[in-house]
Amino acid sequence: YIIPDIKVIYYARENFKGLSxxxxxxxxxxxxxxxxxxxxxxxxxxxxxxxxxxxxxxxTLRFSVxxxxxxxxxxxxxxxxLLTMLMRSIYIxxxxxxxxxxxxSFFVLHFSYGIGSLVGLIKTVKxxxxxx
Length: 132
What we know:
Layout: H1 16-37, H2 45-66, H3 70-92, H4 99-131
């Protein structure tokens, strides 16, 4: 929009495995880069939302072993996510991509990014603990 002479070619990941690997790596390295550079200004709240989402699912699932009613919170979080993503998938799908394909893409993207961020956070905590 700003410089119309620029031409850009974007290569999307060809399969869900590639999408997963890419987003896992993005989540991991966003956290690790912030640690290594000591600069958090490159990250915004949106970078942490998949981490919070995955962590909330894991914590409520883990807590439900001790307190069974926590499983309802887990189901509510997952249901809210799936319903929201289903509505977005319906909105953005077209003749080239089915609703199910878009929904699965969201799921793979968010979970792999969130798990990558969680692994990055765990590695960062280990680094901090070993240096002090």
